[in-house]
Structure formats: C-alpha cells, structure tokens
Structure prediction request, 162 residues.
Amino acid sequence: MPTFDIVSQVDMQEVRNAVDQANREASTRFDFKGTDARIELGDHELVLHANTEDRLRALHQVLEEKLVKRQVSLKALEDGKIEEAAKGTARQRVAIKAGISAEHAKALNKAVKDLGLKGVTSQTQGDQVRVQGKKRDDLQEVIRQLKEQDFGIPLQFTNFRD
Prediction:
C-alpha cells in the first residue's frame, strides 16, 4: 500500500548560515554602527540583542530576509515579546518550532479525513503523520490539498513509498 509521511522540520544548518549572514550584515551596515546589534543561536532558540527596540525590529527584519533567501519557512519561528535587558538595551527571544504537535496532528488527520478520498487513512506517529492509501494518485491529491491549506507550521512530505 502506498504511504508517505507529513513532517515539520527545520534545517538548522541553514538557520545557522542565515544567522551568520545577518550578524555580518549588522556589523557592516551604517544604521547598525555602534549599536552592538547581534543574534545568538541556541539549540532551538534565537536571541536578538540591540540597544533600542527600533534597532531590534530592524535586526529581526534582516534575519527574516536571510532566512527566506535560504528557504527556511518563517512559520517555524515563534517571536517572543521584546524585553528590556541590561544597560537599557532590548532583547527578544525567537523560538524555532520543529515537529508536529498533538493539536496540529489532529488538524492534519481531520483535513485528510475531510477530503473524503476512498481508502485513504492517516495516523499520528510521534511528531509525524503517516498517510496510507490504495492508489498513488489519491496520495498525490492529499499532498496537493494539504499544500493549499495553512496549518501554521511548515510542512514537508517525505518517505513516499509505493
């Protein structure tokens, strides 16, 4: 029986490259001179630092541009609130979401079921959803329909097997 998996992954190497490019641009751009604007990369979190909230927003925009150029979906980012840091500077934490949560998996399973394709089933397996069907064309239709919908997370379709 043909199957495929729906996953939500983030290529951390591309995120690291985008952060490096954004930091490099922040160190050379005229409007960031002397502002100590920088981005720190943690395990699944980015921390943006700048001396004012305006510079922080500009740094966030630069980061988003670099991520988009590297084909990292902005849906994978969850912005925290802007906090006041030491010496009157501003800081913002940005979480990187990977994996399909239980409520997103439930929504995906419901969407697959609502398509009403005969012989197509889906089930949650950890942080991914496996879709099975009798016909390859039905599974391709599921992928097409799910790509048109917005679930608030980046989706990839992997492990397609006949």
Q: What stands out?
A: The longest helix spans residues 12-28.
